[in-house]
Write a structure and sequence with these properties.
This protein is α/β, with parallel strands linked by helices. It has a single domain (32-250), classed as Rossmann fold (3-Layer(aba) Sandwich). It has helices at residues 32-35, 40-55, 75-88, 106-109, 118-122, 128-131, 152-156, 159-169, 187-192, 209-221, 239-250; strands at residues 2-5, 20-23, 62-68, 94-98, 132-134, 140-143, 174-178, 197-203, 226-232. β5 (132-134) and β6 form a beta hairpin. α2 packs across α3 (75-88). The N and C termini lie far apart (45 Å).
């Protein structure tokens, strides 16, 4: 926590103390669900949450992979915001796993220090109790990525991942996994085939339709179920273009 103090030059007649403004600078400013929970962006995350909860109704605990076609689509920021948003919902308990061994960002975005995480857990160098961390957000827990392994995709394809997801489903209503982009790496496709669904994050002003379609096809060929697309940077775009992406994802 960082504290910024703003002291007025004059006290009021009752001698009120100076104004103290407390801001949490550890959490990345792009995590709007934390910093600006009443903003339009936050409401858009809540709208997405509504759809996600409706899709999983009466299906028990759900595991979902979040990925993108290419780097820079905002998948990690979206994953953290969606996780916080889900944790707000009554009766939910959320675990966010940073499964992006290539470029992990979840711990940084949430202002959590480094340490053992998913890689150590899967390599039997740590227990679940060692790596499962509480966050500033009630009902939201995080597993960091840990030390970069030599064989990320092979590690995510191991039987230990299935066992971990089965264990987490007994403790959490939602398990979200942030993964590397699909087109350059196979990690998301491998993990996506072991989860209940995949959300493809698409940045409207940078991700080409061909790249988005290629990512979707790679995921589906691997046996992953693409349940939808989450669109970022749509404010300045043609609403019809955004609708086309959404329609394609629902087909």
């Amino acid at each position: 926590m960082a504290v910024d103090e703003q002291e007025s030059n004059e006290r009021d007649e009752e001698g009120a103390p100076p104004l103290v403004v407390i801001t949490d600078t550890a959490v990345d400013p792009h995590i709007v669900m934390h910093h600006e929970p009443r903003s339009l962006q936050a409401e858009q995350y809540r709208a997405f949450r509504t759809n996600l909860l409706a899709m999983g109704r009466n299906k028990g605990s759900r595991s979902v992979v979040l990925t993108s076609g290419i780097k820079g689509d905002g998948k990690s920021i979206s994953a953290v915001n969606i996780a916080i948003c889900l944790a707000e919902a009554p009766g939910t308990r959320v675990c966010l796993i940073d499964a992006d061994f290539r470029s992990p960002r979840v711990a940084e975005l949430l202002g959590i220090g480094g340490g053992k995480g998913l890689s150590e857990l899967l390599l039997d160098e740590a227990t679940l109790a060692d790596v499962l961390l509480e966050t500033r957000v009630q009902n939201l827990f995080v597993i960091r990525s840990g030390r970069p392994p030599r064989n990320p995709s092979e590690l995510l394809a191991s039987e230990r991942v299935k066992n971990l997801l089965d264990t987490l489903k007994q403790q959490f209503t939602h398990i979200l996994c942030d993964t590397p982009p699909v087109n350059p790496f196979t990690d998301a496709a491998v993990l996506g085939a072991r989860t209940d669904g995949v959300v493809l994050v698409v940045r409207m002003n940078s991700t080409g339709r061909e790249q988005a379609e290629r990512a979707r096809h790679v995921l589906e060929r691997a046996g992953a179920h693409v349940i939808g697309a989450f669109l970022t940077d749509t404010a300045s775009q043609d609403p019809d273009a955004a609708a086309e992406y959404e329609e394609d994802a629902d087909e």
